Amino acid sequence: MRYKLLGKSGLRVSELCLGTMTFGDDWGWGSSKDESRALYDAFVESGGNFIDTADLYTNGTSESFLGEFMASDRERIVLATKYTNTAPGNDPNAAGNQRKNMMQSVEASLKRLKTDYIDLYWLHVWDFMTPIEEVMRAFDDLVSQGKILYIGISDAPAWIVARANMLAELRGWTSFVGLQVEYSLIERTSERELLPMARELDLGVTAWSPLAGGLLTGKYASDAHSEGEEKRLEHPMMAPLVDINARKRTIAEAVVEIAAAIGKTAAQVALNWLRQQPGVVIPIIGARRLSQLKDNLASLEFTLEEEHLRRLADVSQFELGFPHDFFTNELVQNFAFGGMRDLIDNHRQH
Description:
Number of strands: 12
Strand order of the largest sheet: 3-4-5-6-7-8-9-12
Helix content: 25-40%
CATH superfamily of the largest domain: NADP-dependent oxidoreductase domain
Number of domains: 2
Order of helices and strands: EEEHEHEHEHEHEHEEEHHEHHHH
Structural class: alpha/beta
Oligomer: single chain
CATH class of the largest domain: Alpha Beta
Radius of gyration: 21 Å
């Protein structure tokens, strides 16, 4: 296990992050307490120190389990949890990004986690209601109080993140050092705006669902069905269903073929593709069984060759759309640079 600096900070985090949405079986799936403990121990013994949870996960059980598991080694763990979401109810302030929910949520998480501080506190989902100023000032207050050390943002538009960090910089408040997004060979659309922004602002990226709900493990790659038919795969996060269409199946099959050629598993190939992307990209690995976790950890033992990276990039290609495709148009390039683009060296181009 090697370690990376998380964004524009000095915080050292392991190159894989343990996701703990599976800790607890309150939602009818997941791992028992003993199984969860085995997963935690195996990750820490491998050198992992970066652990991700949320107040919503398994109705708080995930945080409670971690509070017990970390009792003897809290100082070495980089603990990340989140606020924003809650189960449906009748309190309009029980969810959302506002200061009231943030303050109530952090106190509840600290109690469940049996700790007096959280290393990295994520805003879980942008609510499009709360002013950015309110969010960033509230985060800064919690940092000043010593209850959280660093802040990050998950599942939000790039313009929100960029504006928030600029506001924090101008006002001397704490800025985001991390960005959490869905990212995998199946879901690459964060490459349009979010990942270029993360590299420009020096944000560490943690990628959730790096195996696309299990699709990139090879489990579904060879399912037979007629042309154009869509199969459905249940995503672990309660509700949404992931459509297994022809494009996704083709990507999954390419991953399986490369894995077979190099003597690795499909999951290991998919995780390595993520780890070898530009910038700091840390896959969040989630497992229900110890064997799954060990398989994921073994992805650290090799890297993919250029030919394999090229094949995966080609098979998973997607349209960037406007304005990105517009910028690559030859006529546009000729006008924008007066026909001199090829003679200009740009050291800032990613």
